[in-house]
Protein backbone atom coordinates (compact mmCIF):
# COMPACT_ATOMS: atom_id res chain seq x y z
CA UNK A 1 0.00 0.00 0.00
CA UNK A 2 1.32 3.41 -0.94
CA UNK A 3 2.08 5.77 1.92
CA UNK A 4 -0.18 8.65 0.99
CA UNK A 5 -2.62 10.90 2.84
CA UNK A 6 -5.19 13.49 1.89
CA UNK A 7 -6.30 16.16 4.37
CA UNK A 8 -9.22 18.44 3.73
CA UNK A 9 -10.12 21.27 6.11
CA UNK A 10 -8.10 19.66 8.90
CA UNK A 11 -9.65 16.21 8.49
CA UNK A 12 -7.95 13.08 7.24
CA UNK A 13 -10.11 12.19 4.25
CA UNK A 14 -8.16 9.41 2.57
CA UNK A 15 -4.92 7.47 2.82
CA UNK A 16 -3.18 4.65 1.00
CA UNK A 17 -4.33 5.81 -2.43
CA UNK A 18 -1.99 5.45 -5.43
CA UNK A 19 0.64 8.13 -5.87
CA UNK A 20 -0.65 8.59 -9.42
CA UNK A 21 -3.82 10.14 -7.92
CA UNK A 22 -1.85 12.85 -6.12
CA UNK A 23 -1.95 15.19 -9.12
CA UNK A 24 -5.76 15.02 -9.14
CA UNK A 25 -5.95 16.03 -5.47
CA UNK A 26 -3.48 18.87 -5.92
CA UNK A 27 -5.97 20.46 -8.31
CA UNK A 28 -8.47 20.80 -5.46
CA UNK A 29 -8.05 24.15 -3.66
CA UNK A 30 -8.78 22.92 -0.12
CA UNK A 31 -6.73 19.68 -0.23
CA UNK A 32 -3.38 19.02 1.44
CA UNK A 33 -1.45 15.95 0.28
CA UNK A 34 1.39 13.94 1.73
CA UNK A 35 3.11 11.02 0.10
CA UNK A 36 6.30 9.12 0.81
CA UNK A 37 9.03 7.75 -1.43
CA UNK A 38 11.57 5.23 -0.15
CA UNK A 39 14.80 4.95 -2.18
CA UNK A 40 13.26 6.55 -5.29
CA UNK A 41 14.90 6.58 -8.70
CA UNK A 42 15.69 9.59 -10.85
CA UNK A 43 12.58 8.86 -12.92
CA UNK A 44 10.40 8.89 -9.80
CA UNK A 45 11.66 12.30 -8.73
CA UNK A 46 11.50 13.72 -12.24
CA UNK A 47 7.83 12.74 -12.39
CA UNK A 48 6.92 14.62 -9.22
CA UNK A 49 9.24 17.48 -10.19
CA UNK A 50 7.06 18.29 -13.18
CA UNK A 51 3.95 18.20 -11.02
CA UNK A 52 5.26 20.27 -8.10
CA UNK A 53 7.77 22.48 -9.91
CA UNK A 54 10.78 21.32 -7.91
CA UNK A 55 14.19 22.91 -8.38
CA UNK A 56 16.84 20.74 -10.12
CA UNK A 57 19.31 21.33 -7.28
CA UNK A 58 16.78 20.02 -4.78
CA UNK A 59 16.31 16.91 -6.90
CA UNK A 60 20.08 16.36 -6.97
CA UNK A 61 20.32 16.71 -3.20
CA UNK A 62 17.53 14.17 -2.69
CA UNK A 63 19.25 11.64 -4.96
CA UNK A 64 22.73 12.00 -3.45
CA UNK A 65 22.96 10.70 0.10
CA UNK A 66 25.09 12.06 2.94
CA UNK A 67 23.88 15.65 2.64
CA UNK A 68 24.24 17.80 5.74
CA UNK A 69 21.04 18.65 7.64
CA UNK A 70 19.72 21.80 6.00
CA UNK A 71 16.71 23.76 4.79
CA UNK A 72 16.97 25.31 1.33
CA UNK A 73 14.32 27.85 0.36
CA UNK A 74 13.38 28.13 -3.32
CA UNK A 75 10.74 30.24 -5.01
CA UNK A 76 8.02 27.57 -5.13
CA UNK A 77 9.06 25.18 -2.39
CA UNK A 78 11.51 24.31 0.38
CA UNK A 79 13.91 21.39 0.52
CA UNK A 80 14.58 19.80 3.90
CA UNK A 81 17.26 17.26 4.76
CA UNK A 82 17.40 15.63 8.21
CA UNK A 83 18.68 12.55 10.02
CA UNK A 84 16.90 10.29 12.48
CA UNK A 85 19.28 8.60 14.93
CA UNK A 86 19.36 5.32 16.84
CA UNK A 87 21.87 4.26 19.50
CA UNK A 88 23.02 0.71 20.27
CA UNK A 89 23.69 0.59 24.00
CA UNK A 90 25.57 -2.72 23.76
CA UNK A 91 28.17 -1.58 21.23
CA UNK A 92 28.07 2.18 21.78
CA UNK A 93 27.56 2.77 18.06
CA UNK A 94 25.31 5.36 16.46
CA UNK A 95 23.10 4.74 13.44
CA UNK A 96 21.80 7.73 11.51
CA UNK A 97 19.17 7.44 8.78
CA UNK A 98 18.82 10.20 6.22
CA UNK A 99 15.52 11.57 4.93
CA UNK A 100 14.57 14.51 2.75
CA UNK A 101 11.35 16.42 2.19
CA UNK A 102 9.94 18.72 -0.46
CA UNK A 103 7.64 21.28 1.14
CA UNK A 104 5.16 23.17 -1.03
CA UNK A 105 2.12 25.21 -0.14
CA UNK A 106 -0.23 22.22 -0.24
CA UNK A 107 2.01 19.15 -0.40
CA UNK A 108 4.68 17.43 1.63
CA UNK A 109 6.81 14.80 -0.08
CA UNK A 110 9.14 12.75 2.12
CA UNK A 111 12.06 10.89 0.55
CA UNK A 112 13.70 8.22 2.73
CA UNK A 113 16.98 6.45 2.08
CA UNK A 114 15.98 3.44 4.19
CA UNK A 115 13.01 1.83 5.92
CA UNK A 116 14.91 2.40 9.18
CA UNK A 117 13.53 5.92 9.14
CA UNK A 118 10.26 5.14 10.93
CA UNK A 119 7.61 7.04 9.00
CA UNK A 120 5.02 5.15 11.09
CA UNK A 121 6.03 7.15 14.16
CA UNK A 122 5.66 10.36 12.17
CA UNK A 123 2.16 9.30 11.17
CA UNK A 124 1.28 8.60 14.81
CA UNK A 125 2.27 12.16 15.66
CA UNK A 126 -0.02 13.42 12.95
CA UNK A 127 -2.86 11.23 14.20
CA UNK A 128 -2.50 12.64 17.71
CA UNK A 129 -2.43 16.24 16.47
CA UNK A 130 -6.19 16.69 16.57
CA UNK A 131 -7.37 20.13 15.46
CA UNK A 132 -3.85 21.20 14.56
CA UNK A 133 -4.26 19.33 11.27
CA UNK A 134 -6.18 22.32 9.93
CA UNK A 135 -2.85 24.08 9.50
CA UNK A 136 -2.06 21.82 6.57
CA UNK A 137 1.53 21.42 5.43
CA UNK A 138 2.90 23.29 8.46
CA UNK A 139 1.25 20.69 10.68
CA UNK A 140 2.78 17.82 8.67
CA UNK A 141 6.19 19.46 8.70
CA UNK A 142 6.04 19.91 12.47
CA UNK A 143 5.30 16.21 12.99
CA UNK A 144 8.30 15.25 10.85
CA UNK A 145 10.70 17.59 12.63
CA UNK A 146 9.34 16.63 16.05
CA UNK A 147 10.07 12.96 15.37
CA UNK A 148 13.60 13.71 14.15
CA UNK A 149 14.51 15.90 17.13
CA UNK A 150 12.99 13.36 19.54
CA UNK A 151 15.31 10.65 18.15
CA UNK A 152 18.23 12.99 18.80
CA UNK A 153 17.09 13.52 22.37
CA UNK A 154 16.62 9.79 22.99
CA UNK A 155 20.15 9.10 21.74
CA UNK A 156 21.65 11.86 23.89
CA UNK A 157 19.86 10.52 26.99
CA UNK A 158 21.07 6.97 26.28
CA UNK A 159 24.63 8.19 25.80
CA UNK A 160 24.41 10.18 29.03
CA UNK A 161 23.51 6.98 30.90
CA UNK A 162 26.49 5.18 29.34
CA UNK A 163 28.86 7.99 30.30
CA UNK A 164 27.55 8.00 33.88
CA UNK A 165 28.46 4.32 34.14
CA UNK A 166 31.96 5.10 32.87
CA UNK A 167 32.29 7.87 35.43
CA UNK A 168 31.22 5.57 38.28
CA UNK A 169 34.03 3.14 37.46
CA UNK A 170 36.58 5.85 36.80
CA UNK A 171 38.26 5.79 40.23
CA UNK A 172 38.24 2.06 40.88
CA UNK A 173 41.55 0.61 41.95
CA UNK A 174 41.78 -1.49 38.81
CA UNK A 175 42.61 0.22 35.54
CA UNK A 176 39.99 0.14 32.75
CA UNK A 177 40.32 -2.94 30.59
CA UNK A 178 40.28 -3.14 26.79
CA UNK A 179 36.48 -3.47 26.67
CA UNK A 180 35.95 -0.30 28.69
CA UNK A 181 38.53 1.58 26.65
CA UNK A 182 36.88 0.42 23.45
CA UNK A 183 33.48 1.52 24.78
CA UNK A 184 34.88 4.97 25.59
CA UNK A 185 36.35 5.28 22.11
CA UNK A 186 33.07 4.20 20.45
CA UNK A 187 31.11 6.69 22.55
CA UNK A 188 33.41 9.52 21.58
CA UNK A 189 33.18 8.55 17.93
CA UNK A 190 29.38 8.34 18.14
CA UNK A 191 29.17 11.74 19.82
CA UNK A 192 31.22 13.30 17.02
CA UNK A 193 28.87 11.78 14.44
CA UNK A 194 25.82 12.80 16.46
CA UNK A 195 26.95 16.40 16.63
CA UNK A 196 27.18 16.51 12.84
CA UNK A 197 23.46 15.82 12.54
CA UNK A 198 22.23 17.58 15.71
CA UNK A 199 24.01 20.93 15.60
CA UNK A 200 22.64 22.05 12.18
CA UNK A 201 19.05 21.39 13.31
CA UNK A 202 19.09 24.70 15.19
CA UNK A 203 19.69 26.51 11.93
CA UNK A 204 17.07 24.43 10.12
CA UNK A 205 14.24 25.27 12.51
CA UNK A 206 15.40 28.86 12.91
CA UNK A 207 15.27 29.31 9.12
CA UNK A 208 11.62 28.29 9.18
CA UNK A 209 10.89 31.27 11.43
CA UNK A 210 13.06 33.80 9.62
CA UNK A 211 12.26 32.96 6.01
CA UNK A 212 8.81 31.43 6.04
CA UNK A 213 5.85 33.67 6.76
CA UNK A 214 3.45 30.72 6.94
CA UNK A 215 5.25 29.15 9.89
CA UNK A 216 5.96 32.43 11.64
CA UNK A 217 2.35 33.65 11.60
CA UNK A 218 0.72 30.29 12.16
CA UNK A 219 -0.81 29.04 15.39
CA UNK A 220 1.80 26.32 15.12
CA UNK A 221 4.60 28.80 15.82
CA UNK A 222 4.80 27.84 19.54
CA UNK A 223 5.05 24.18 18.55
CA UNK A 224 7.93 24.91 16.20
CA UNK A 225 9.50 26.97 18.97
CA UNK A 226 9.29 23.91 21.20
CA UNK A 227 11.04 21.84 18.53
CA UNK A 228 13.71 24.53 18.27
CA UNK A 229 14.25 24.50 22.04
CA UNK A 230 14.67 20.73 21.98
CA UNK A 231 17.12 20.99 19.08
CA UNK A 232 19.18 23.57 20.98
CA UNK A 233 19.18 21.46 24.15
CA UNK A 234 20.19 18.34 22.23
CA UNK A 235 23.07 20.20 20.56
CA UNK A 236 24.32 21.71 23.83
CA UNK A 237 23.95 18.38 25.63
CA UNK A 238 25.92 16.66 22.89
CA UNK A 239 28.76 19.17 23.24
CA UNK A 240 28.89 18.71 27.02
CA UNK A 241 28.90 14.91 26.71
CA UNK A 242 31.68 15.04 24.15
CA UNK A 243 33.75 17.08 26.62
CA UNK A 244 32.96 14.57 29.38
CA UNK A 245 34.09 11.62 27.29
CA UNK A 246 37.27 13.48 26.43
CA UNK A 247 37.88 14.09 30.13
CA UNK A 248 37.27 10.41 30.89
CA UNK A 249 39.82 9.35 28.26
CA UNK A 250 42.34 11.80 29.66
CA UNK A 251 41.64 10.50 33.17
CA UNK A 252 42.22 6.93 31.96
CA UNK A 253 45.57 7.94 30.49
CA UNK A 254 46.54 9.85 33.62
CA UNK A 255 45.60 6.91 35.84
CA UNK A 256 47.62 4.55 33.64
CA UNK A 257 50.66 6.85 33.88
CA UNK A 258 50.26 7.14 37.65
CA UNK A 259 49.96 3.38 37.94
CA UNK A 260 53.10 2.95 35.86
CA UNK A 261 54.99 5.46 38.02
CA UNK A 262 53.88 3.63 41.16
CA UNK A 263 55.06 0.31 39.74
CA UNK A 264 58.39 1.82 38.76
CA UNK A 265 58.87 3.23 42.27
CA UNK A 266 58.17 -0.16 43.80
CA UNK A 267 60.48 -1.97 41.41
CA UNK A 268 63.22 0.59 42.00
CA UNK A 269 62.79 0.35 45.77
CA UNK A 270 63.06 -3.43 45.81
CA UNK A 271 66.04 -3.27 43.45
CA UNK A 272 67.78 -0.87 45.87
CA UNK A 273 67.02 -3.15 48.83
CA UNK A 274 68.39 -6.19 47.02
CA UNK A 275 71.44 -4.29 45.78
CA UNK A 276 72.94 -3.85 49.29
CA UNK A 277 73.17 -7.55 50.27
CA UNK A 278 74.26 -8.33 46.73
CA UNK A 279 77.14 -5.87 47.04
CA UNK A 280 78.22 -7.19 50.46
CA UNK A 281 78.01 -10.85 49.56
CA UNK A 282 79.71 -10.06 46.28
CA UNK A 283 82.71 -8.67 48.09
CA UNK A 284 82.94 -11.82 50.18
CA UNK A 285 82.73 -13.92 47.06
CA UNK A 286 86.03 -12.54 45.72
CA UNK A 287 89.27 -14.54 45.87
CA UNK A 288 90.94 -11.66 47.73
CA UNK A 289 90.63 -12.13 51.52
CA UNK A 290 88.60 -9.51 53.40
CA UNK A 291 88.39 -8.78 57.14
CA UNK A 292 86.72 -11.77 58.72
CA UNK A 293 87.20 -13.92 55.68
CA UNK A 294 86.89 -17.59 56.64
CA UNK A 295 85.86 -16.62 60.20
CA UNK A 296 82.43 -17.04 61.81
CA UNK A 297 82.42 -13.45 63.07
CA UNK A 298 83.03 -12.24 59.51
CA UNK A 299 80.00 -14.15 58.26
CA UNK A 300 77.75 -12.79 60.98
CA UNK A 301 79.07 -9.26 60.56
CA UNK A 302 78.38 -9.23 56.81
CA UNK A 303 74.97 -10.79 57.35
CA UNK A 304 74.11 -8.20 59.97
CA UNK A 305 75.25 -5.36 57.70
CA UNK A 306 73.03 -6.25 54.79
CA UNK A 307 70.06 -7.07 57.06
CA UNK A 308 70.34 -3.68 58.75
CA UNK A 309 70.80 -1.90 55.41
CA UNK A 310 67.79 -3.70 53.91
CA UNK A 311 65.60 -2.84 56.91
CA UNK A 312 66.66 0.82 56.82
CA UNK A 313 65.98 1.11 53.09
CA UNK A 314 62.63 -0.66 53.41
CA UNK A 315 61.61 1.66 56.25
CA UNK A 316 62.56 4.78 54.31
CA UNK A 317 60.82 3.67 51.14
CA UNK A 318 57.70 2.67 53.09
CA UNK A 319 57.71 6.04 54.83
CA UNK A 320 57.71 7.79 51.46
CA UNK A 321 54.92 5.53 50.15
CA UNK A 322 57.13 3.91 47.56
CA UNK A 323 56.24 0.44 48.81
TrEMBL record:
<dbReference type="GO" id="GO:0005886">
    <property type="term" value="C:plasma membrane"/>
</dbReference>
<keyword id="KW-1003">Cell membrane</keyword>
<keyword id="KW-1133">Transmembrane helix</keyword>
<comment type="similarity">
    <text>Belongs to the CorA metal ion transporter (MIT) (TC 1.A.35) family.</text>
</comment>
<feature type="transmembrane region" description="Helical">
    <location>
        <begin position="297"/>
        <end position="317"/>
    </location>
</feature>
<dbReference type="GO" id="GO:0050897">
    <property type="term" value="F:cobalt ion binding"/>
</dbReference>
<dbReference type="GO" id="GO:0000287">
    <property type="term" value="F:magnesium ion binding"/>
</dbReference>
<protein>
    <submittedName>
        <fullName>Magnesium transporter CorA family protein</fullName>
    </submittedName>
</protein>
<keyword id="KW-0813">Transport</keyword>
<keyword id="KW-0812">Transmembrane</keyword>
<dbReference type="InterPro" id="IPR045863">
    <property type="entry name" value="CorA_TM1_TM2"/>
</dbReference>
<dbReference type="GO" id="GO:0015087">
    <property type="term" value="F:cobalt ion transmembrane transporter activity"/>
</dbReference>
<dbReference type="GO" id="GO:0015095">
    <property type="term" value="F:magnesium ion transmembrane transporter activity"/>
</dbReference>
<dbReference type="InterPro" id="IPR045861">
    <property type="entry name" value="CorA_cytoplasmic_dom"/>
</dbReference>
<dbReference type="Pfam" id="PF01544">
    <property type="entry name" value="CorA"/>
</dbReference>
<keyword id="KW-0472">Membrane</keyword>
<feature type="transmembrane region" description="Helical">
    <location>
        <begin position="267"/>
        <end position="285"/>
    </location>
</feature>
<dbReference type="InterPro" id="IPR002523">
    <property type="entry name" value="MgTranspt_CorA/ZnTranspt_ZntB"/>
</dbReference>
Amino acid sequence: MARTRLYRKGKLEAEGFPIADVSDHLGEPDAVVWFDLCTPTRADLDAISEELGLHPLAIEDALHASQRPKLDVYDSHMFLNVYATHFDGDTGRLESVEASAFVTERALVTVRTSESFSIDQVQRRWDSGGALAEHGVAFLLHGLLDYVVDTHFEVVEAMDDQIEKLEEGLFHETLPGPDEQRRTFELRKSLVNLRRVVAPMREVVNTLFRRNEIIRDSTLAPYFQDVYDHAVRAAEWTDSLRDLVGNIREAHMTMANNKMNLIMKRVTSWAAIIAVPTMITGFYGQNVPYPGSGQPWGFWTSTGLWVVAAVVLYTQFKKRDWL
